[in-house]
Specification:
Layout (H helix, E strand, L loop, with lengths): L2 H31 L6 H19 L4 H11 L8 H17 L3 H24 L2 H22 L5 H6 L8 H21 L15 H14 L7 E5 L5 E5 L2 E6 L6 H20 L15 H15 L3 H14 L1 H4 L4 H8 L16 H17 L7 H13 L25 H20 L9 H14 L9 H9 L6 H11 L2
Parallel strand pairs: 1-3
Antiparallel strand pairs: 2-3
Helix pairs in contact: 1-2, 1-3, 2-5, 3-4, 5-6, 8-20, 9-10, 9-12, 10-11, 11-17, 15-16, 17-20
């Protein structure tokens, strides 16, 4: 069989695997938005069946020789060619999947359904004990998975590699801890004037939803190929071309909470909608990493969404929607209110400065959970101690503490640090974009936002996994990832 035919056969095979994966993502979205509680048993069976089918497809015995032959014969092509990139990533998927028994894959997928249901119940009742046995089961299963995957690496790094390929905890430590010191300096020098109360009021949920959809659409999210729903914890589900679903939760007293949740998830959505649809199911049509993915969400939520130039354009619309709540609030005061720097309990509502401290202590805790240096029963106390150390706050209950995030109930160990990496990438990308498009410091109108979206699509989205995260950053900005861009952004914005 000639090279082209081998390649076409592999493309079709892995595309089929991706279709199965997209089915799992669809029922996962349904589970977190619409599924009645009584559907958990069936959903667990569905998840298990789909995960087994996907695992069998990506570990099929004929793939080993076929992939080795493709890699050898395609070596004559440039390393960033479609064939070379897809071969590289298919081999990575095949090798990782073959290290994990299908029984463990099935057990994980079933457990996640029950554990997320238990997490929701525990959170609503503010009772960690309802979630504790499920968290213990998940962590034991993830430790097993890590042992299967680890090749001389720490178990945590084996899990981290699934979200940020090539990253290690030693590397993250070397970035995060010097950055932490810079963040604390910014925090200590922030203005103490509190304008937050000015924008609190009664905001009907349906009006919030309509306003959020308009703003997300204005930023480029295509609602002909997507939708917005509510859930317990916001997320984005990129099912495939023409179907990207974002979610948020609305706060009836503060419309900015739901709106920034929408902008965050819409940033993820822009990435998913910006991937090349002709490459669906292939690495060249798949997001490269969660760090780069989070750069797009944090960029839209903060670098754009919390900027004064953005609100110069949007604020009249906000007043039109909520005149009783906002008509008495000046644009400058509104801008100060949505950028108020003040340590708070909830990560997703945190300001741009303290958010990073939220991430660092979660990163520390999940490393300790995986390494077994922290027992599950001690998590609430350890969480509270970390929050007090980093933010000067002690949660009054577990819902404000260790039960606030969905990630661990879904087995997402290694995900949290990608949020901070996303902040770093976002600052570096925006600094470069401002030099290359017609940026207007006075107002981010529709034309500029369109230019920015096209710039992101051209430079980041359409590449898929063509370049690894660090290489992509160098290609886009001309520099390796450097925390100085984010540090400068925070200093200029909050210490001016």
């Amino acid at each position: 069989m000639d090279l082209e035919l081998k390649y076409l056969k592999l493309k079709e095979h892995f595309k089929n695997a991706r279709v199965i994966e997209s089915c799992a993502e669809l029922i996962g979205w349904d589970e977190r938005t619409n599924m009645p509680p009584g559907g958990a048993d069936l959903r667990a069976l569905q998840n298990s069946a789909l995960s087994k089918l996907h695992h069998e497809l990506v570990t099929d015995s004929w793939l080993c020789d076929a992939l080795m032959e493709l890699a050898s014969e395609s070596a004559v092509f440039p390393s960033d060619s479609d064939m070379s990139v897809n071969a590289r990533e298919w081999i990575r998927v095949f090798n990782r999947a073959n290290k994990i028994p299908v029984s463990l894959v099935q057990e994980l997928s079933k457990t996640f359904v029950y554990s997320q249901q238990a997490w929701q119940e525990a959170r609503s009742q503010n009772n960690f004990s309802l979630f504790e046995p499920w968290l213990e089961k998940i962590i034991n299963l993830k430790r097993q998975e890590a042992k299967c995957l680890a090749n001389g690496q720490a178990n945590y790094d084996a899990l981290l590699d699934d979200y940020e390929p090539g990253a290690t905890s030693i590397e993250l430590d070397s970035i995060f801890y010097p950055l932490k010191d810079s963040i604390i300096k910014v925090l200590n020098n922030c203005a103490k004037e509190n304008k937050r109360s000015l924008i609190l009021g009664n905001y009907p949920e349906q009006k919030q939803k309509i306003f959020s959809e308009i703003v997300a659409g204005y930023c480029g999210f295509d609602f002909n190929a997507g939708r917005l729903d509510t859930t317990a914890h916001p997320f984005c589900c990129g099912i495939g071309p023409g179907d990207c679903r974002i979610t948020t939760r609305f706060n009836p007293s503060d419309f900015s909470s739901g709106l920034f949740g929408v902008l965050h998830e819409a940033g993820h959505g822009l990435y998913e909608q910006g991937l090349d649809p002709d490459h669906f199911g292939l690495p060249t049509g798949t997001a490269v990493s969660l760090g780069i993915h989070e750069s797009q969400s944090r960029l839209l939520e903060n670098q754009i969404g919390r900027s004064l130039e953005f609100w110069r354009f949007i604020y009249p619309l906000a007043i039109k929607f909520f005149p009783a709540q906002l008509a008495h609030v000046s644009l400058n005061d509104f801008h100060k209110a949505i950028n108020q720097v003040q340590p708070g309990f909830i990560r997703v509502d945190a300001d741009e400065v303290t958010y990073n401290l939220h991430i660092i202590f979660r990163y520390e805790l999940e490393k300790d959970l995986i390494s077994q240096s922290l027992s599950i029963k001690d998590l609430p106390e350890a969480w509270n101690a970390k929050m007090e150390t980093y933010l000067g706050l002690k949660p009054k209950n577990d819902a404000m503490g260790c039960l606030q995030d969905i990630h661990w109930s879904a087995g997402l160990f290694g995900y949290f640090p990608t949020y901070l990496l996303g902040n770093l990438y976002a600052a570096q990308f925006v600094a470069k974009a401002k030099k290359e498009i017609a940026w207007n410091e006075n107002a981010l109108n529709a034309d500029i936002l369109f230019e920015l979206r096209q710039w992101l699509k051209k430079n980041i989205h359409v590449h898929g996994k063509r370049y690894l995260p660090g290489k992509l950053c160098e290609k886009v900005t001309g520099l390796k990832l450097d925390k100085v861009f984010f540090e400068q952004y925070l200093l200029q914005k909050f210490n001016s």
